[in-house]
Design brief:
Layout: H1 7-24, E1 37-46, H2 48-53, E2 64-71, E3 90-98, E4 104-111, H3 121-133, H4 136-142, H5 144-151, E5 156-157, E6 165-167, E7 171-174, E8 180-189, E9 195-196, H6 198-202, H7 208-218, E10 222-230, E11 250-261, H8 265-271, E12 283-285, H9 290-307
Antiparallel strand pairs: 1-2, 1-11, 2-3, 3-4, 4-6, 5-9, 6-8, 7-8, 7-12, 8-10, 10-11
Helix pairs in contact: 1-3, 1-9, 3-4, 4-5
């Protein structure tokens, strides 16, 4: 996973990491956002539809081992699960394509709201800078995209396994024939969605979401369907804030089964660096400028984490 080649992009990524540290306080060894999380192991099984859309290995192999991470927003490790600031929740999936002779993988990074506070890295930096400086109300008054993100419903789920997750950016799936299809990922819980109101949250423990993960696994795997919303001609693919109509076709790409909590959580959480850019044959990034900035943030903060 290389740093972006554009120095300006790296500068923006670094500034966002520093700003997040300023908002939540530096916590060496932990992520500056989505600090609180849990890693799980599982398996991905693709559909026949996935094979027709992309030549990527995990969409064509019979199954692929995965490492997944559920997380809570903010850089506050001790944030109670009942705190609404923990929303949106995060869900990242690593598809482990090879271990030898070198490690090969590709990732999908999602969160539980279909939105983001800006179209590009500069938008994101200005949003977080306003949040840090206490001027967020003024900022939102003149930035409708950020306001839409802040106002989007972000309810607390009954469990991580009863939450729906959205990819932020568009990607291009490339079939063996060369046919290209722009998509946005969605991850839908097989158990259905369930959310808690304020009264129900008051009855929950501060760690109910994370305590609930091993409890869910006692009954069997936590299962999701990986889906893709398919763009049509004219749909914007290089601006994450330009949503496609809900009537766009949504296809199922496969089944995600989370089977066990990963061993050695502390060491693995510190080491793993998810990558918003796929970097695998059969899936290409769109021209969305936010992608490179996000990749820079993940890599720079990951290097910090590993060095702590």
């Amino acid at each position: 996973m290389p740093l972006p080649s554009d120095e300006k992009v790296v500068e923006t990524s670094s500034a966002i990491v520093s700003t997040l540290h300023g908002i939540f306080g530096p916590h060496p060894g932990f992520r500056p956002a989505h600090a609180k999380g849990v890693l799980l192991n599982g398996t991905f099984t693709p559909t026949e539809e996935a094979k027709t859309l992309s030549k990527a290995p995990h969409f064509n192999n019979a199954s692929t081992p995965i490492i997944a991470r559920f997380s809570s927003s903010t850089g506050i490790l001790e944030l109670p699960d009942t705190d609404p600031n923990g929303n949106p929740r995060g869900f990242a999936i690593r598809f482990v394509l090879a271990e030898t002779p070198r490690r090969v993988h590709t990732d999908i990074v999602t969160h539980s709201v279909d939105g983001f506070p800006g179209s590009n890295g500069q938008d994101a930096l200005e949003f977080f800078t306003a949040l840090k400086g206490g001027s967020i109300a003024d900022y939102l008054g003149s930035h409708p995209k950020a306001l839409a993100f802040v106002q989007a419903p972000k309810p607390t789920p009954a469990s991580f396994g009863k939450e729906k997750y959205f990819g932020v950016n568009a990607f291009k799936l490339v079939a063996a024939s060369g046919k290209a299809t722009f998509i946005r990922y969605r991850i839908v819980p097989e158990a259905g969605e369930q959310y808690l109101d304020e009264a129900a949250l008051k009855e929950k423990s501060p760690s109910f979401l994370y305590d609930g993960v091993p409890e869910l696994l006692k009954a069997g795997p936590i299962v999701f369907k990986l889906k893709a919303q398919i763009a049509e001609d004219g749909d914007v693919t290089d601006d994450n804030t330009a949503k496609w109509p809900e009537e766009r076709q949504v296809v199922e790409l496969g089944t995600v089964k989370l089977e066990t909590v990963a061993d050695d959580q502390a060491a693995q959480q510190k080491r793993i660096i998810f990558d918003p850019i796929p970097r695998v044959e059969g899936i290409e990034p769109s021209a969305d400028p936010l992608l490179e900035v996000r990749a820079g943030i993940y890599l720079l903060s990951g290097r910090e984490r590993r060095a702590a």
